[in-house]
Input
Amino acid sequence: MNNQNTNAVPPDLLDVVIVGAGISGLHAARLLRPDFRIAVLEARERVGGRLCNHRFANGETVDIGGQWVGPGQDRMYRLIGELGFETWPLYDSGDNLLWDGTRGRRYRGTIPRIGPLALLDLGQAMARFERMAKSIDPATPWTHPRAQEWDRQTLATWLQRNCKTRRARELFAIGIGAVFAAEPEELSLLHALFYARSGHSLERLLSVTGGAQQDRIHGGTAGLCTRMAMELGDDLHLNAPVHSVEREPEGNLQVHFEGGVLRCRRLILALPPNQALRIRFSPALPASRDQLWQRMPAGSCIKCVARYERPFWRDQGLSGQVTSAEGPVRVMFDNSEAGRDSGLLMGFLEGETARHYSGVDPEERRRDVLDCFARYFGEQARRPLEYVDRDWSSEPWSRGCYAALMPPGVWTHYGETLRGDDAPIHYAGTESATEWYGYMEGALQAAERAAGEIREALRYSVDSTSLMQRRTREVPRV
Amino acid sequence: MNNQNTNAVPPDLLDVVIVGAGISGLHAARLLRPDFRIAVLEARERVGGRLCNHRFANGETVDIGGQWVGPGQDRMYRLIGELGFETWPLYDSGDNLLWDGTRGRRYRGTIPRIGPLALLDLGQAMARFERMAKSIDPATPWTHPRAQEWDRQTLATWLQRNCKTRRARELFAIGIGAVFAAEPEELSLLHALFYARSGHSLERLLSVTGGAQQDRIHGGTAGLCTRMAMELGDDLHLNAPVHSVEREPEGNLQVHFEGGVLRCRRLILALPPNQALRIRFSPALPASRDQLWQRMPAGSCIKCVARYERPFWRDQGLSGQVTSAEGPVRVMFDNSEAGRDSGLLMGFLEGETARHYSGVDPEERRRDVLDCFARYFGEQARRPLEYVDRDWSSEPWSRGCYAALMPPGVWTHYGETLRGDDAPIHYAGTESATEWYGYMEGALQAAERAAGEIREALRYSVDSTSLMQRRTREVPRV
Output
């Protein structure tokens, strides 16, 4: 790895520069590097982006960013295997808890035990949502016959109309919070439907076993990224935030970053939209691209983890999973790593709650979160060996999690822009994925698409200088 | 004016640096300069921001950006007077045209002649909207008893429910397009209500005589800015885009711009949110500020002006004002300057239409716009002496017009952040105004508030070094 970045004179012409060493940028690099001269620029002092390990005092690590893989995410399981990593299933035995303000009720599966009317109501609303989602083509949501109608309203408006009981609406909203790290009014109905469809179904996004929360990775999701980064050697530049990109008269690009400049024929931006927006382009990007990025804010999430000597809640037959109408922590999981003694409880602060706790003193935040843990799992939960949380909205190079979300009108007005490139600039990152948008799987799918665009473009290129410089291999693969 | 910006070593400590020489930044400078050491940094090679003059071949100029002032905008009329400028009323005689696809109907006033049912429907919806708007405190829209309900839905949802006839909905939407340069689904209902309230009423925002489109300024609104800039002399730096702001250990700020750095005790950002977002702050701004800016995209507008030998439409008793259900130009005005021979017709491409025409070849855009002009005013309108248009979404230092808009959920989740500062960083610009948000008047009001915050802060400052450096005057005024 290259931490110097002291080159001031425009260097040789690379084939591809990739901005962002999250899992999407690293995957694109991995796909292109055998056949092209590439470099990866990363703003942080580490790789992984929204994937990050926290190391506890006892040496154990935990994912403090994105952490789960599940069925249907074939690229992820393939990558995990290729890199020699192993998964384990999240602890999903025993009873889940539904907290309704005064007490916890035990239940199993995805849908909590609530009164029969509310249950029927919730079931009907979810079934209706799933049917609508299923009818969407995730590659082109704006072409759906009802796209206009669905993109004109917020998910909150739809919930108001389609859940008759307050209870069902509340539970639906908790699910939405867990999936989007946002409130229902922040989302276009069409976006919520697309998002569910791009990850198969809402049911799958909400589920543990058989769903998007099924498996964890030993060594952490950030471990995957570190392994991919090692393959890159000096082609990876850390501490290298890109501030501007300039096109030379002949069409090549100069990528200016803190401490240096690289020249390339093609560029991949593997960044969340709110970060891509902060790079200055000369000539300026098309209006539609800039205005699209202005309309893709990131969700709001603080991830909180407490480490205990052992997972004591399991003794009481509890799974560690909580759904609570009462905050601040509304969703919890048993985050303990298989094969270790420590018990880890993990809770999310999401949407409006995350916004509030972003501005709160860290000690107060810790206290309020552990208050919640203790309410759900008893006094023992109030005194962990260690506690850590991460406010992703405060991270300068992410500024929100899990992913960018679409307010009303964005898909129907800017959908085609999102799906295109601005050659020689191409887009990766989970926000440009058609499958599993917002997930690591989407990040890989987007990287593969972007790498394919670049292969296509450079294969037919007649720039002989660069062709000569290029490492020669037999047949380009994607 | 200082076009050099070649200073590389941190210079003396200024009291205030103002970023952005639009009318808000320039007004703040004007207020503070008598008593403090200030500098203004402007990214463009000109001042004015979203205010800009276009010079025709015959030497006449026209506002190609913001242009109108009207009753209730007392600060603007005062400034116009102080700077020695004069206004004239927009040509508002004769009949307006309502175009319904096959023919134009003539009407007078703000509301076109439509069928009695649609008219009743539109009237009722507008009255309901006005009543709701009137009940809002524009300083704190999120405290309204129904704020949550109104911020959970789009204006489109509200229109769907409150206009029974398609015709009324269509006309309401054209009005919204003219006021916001956006589609109804892009706006939170609460934001639309706040916006109308902050400029008195929707009726006033839509009206010519007695409304926000009443008066123009000889010499252009940009002329005001140029005059204000002349007062600044070397304290104004053009071609000086700010890329980062760093806080020194003692709390002063270093403002890094292309070609130099300035040091100051206080900073005013007089920028649209989408531009402020692109500056890098160290330490990072609070999460709530960054996430707020991510959620305040700019509207979409292309302003089109054609110059003719004379205002020939007046001969037919036409005002030059058009409301059309058919695009691309849905709203038009007679933009001729009083006392000149030329006739100017001006039309807006707004919202979705602006997005489309942003990506279209300029020749095709001109042709389609003039097709529209000819449809409304006859063949003579197809052959102007000159034609000019400006796509504000393509302007790198604006990236949209007229102002930033709030999707659902932003006011209720981030309203308090919008109304606060991050001392020593303060906010001006029309998007931080409580009165006439989105208008020049709002830009002045915000500047006065920001200047007041700074006076307050620096008055009680104990930094004696800076006090000694400060130009001494008697009593600080705002």
Summary: Chain A has a mean pLDDT of 93. The domain at 13-48+222-285+422-469 of chain A is CATH 3.50.50.60 (FAD/NAD(P)-binding domain).
